[in-house]
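Example 280.
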Amino acid sequence: VAKEYGANNYQVFHEGMMELSVDRIKLENDLRKAIENEELTVHFQPKYHAMSNKVIGAEALARWKHPLHGYVPPIDFIALAEETNLIVSLERLMIKKTLSYINDWKKKKLEVPRTSINISIVHFYQEDLVPFIEENLRKNNLIGDEIEIEITESIIAKGELHINEKLQKLRKLGIEISVDDFGTGYSSLSYLVNFSIDRLKIDKSFVQNFDNNKEVIAAIIAMSKNLNIKTIAEGVETKEQLESLIALDCLEVQGYIYSRPLEIQTYEEFLLKNNELTVY
Ligand code: C2E
Ligand code: MG
Ligand code: MG
Ligand code: MG
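Predicted structure in complex with magnesium ion:
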């Protein structure tokens, strides 16, 4: 992955403490400007059905190319955005751009799979999240069935009623709700029973250390089945991981074994090719 981000990108994070804090403020300002100027871009990573090898969805992932430092790792600028409240405007830009791309592709008669967008806890708490999404769906002639939201376990961990009400509102629009990086947080399992979600996304740390986590993965899949919740595995890189997941009947997968996140032009070509290959 490091290759993808270019050679110089880490230096800004590795300088001395004083410089680091100055750099941080600079970086925060640069990120704010990049969001305001809508310079952040979107990459799309397809999701697959493991048996049929069909595309079942795609995830929109934020990318930021800093004018001096090149691509900044998402882990770093997302953390920065979360600490500085820039995350709300960042994710609104992601929603705007992603839905507008989907609209463009549909106008070109491309079949676009359900597309997920990551929503952080601070953003999820915003009063006007649902109207904002509705407005952008409407502007782009889309319906909720065409998108999905990936939330973190922390959003459901406290079992707050108003959170569940918001989840229900989103689902009523046809939007699917997935719990991202599942297993790494601390959500009480009881909230899974009561909360309005569609899918658990098993974290890549489990998948990539399959043998040590086999029992946990099996338990998550079995529990989900009983609760009528779907499962997807992220970070699938090897054939062994894929086969182990299939053996546990986890058939939705995402990972480098199928595709890396693709930049916009490449993803459009991918959609074109996929449409030619698939008989709907
Ligand atoms: P995530 O939502 O769990 O996204 C999956 C991450 O795993 C992505 O990293 C993806 O490129 C990477 N990945 C996918 N398949 C594989 C694989 O087979 N092996 C490995 N090693 N990695 C794989 P990325 O794009 O660097 O994003 C990292 C994280 O940044 C995301 O994790 C997500 O938490 C966050 N992120 C990105 N865009 C947004 C956004 O718009 N909002 C929020 N809140 N977070 C975002
Ligand atoms: Mg995600
Ligand atoms: Mg994830
Ligand atoms: Mg993850």
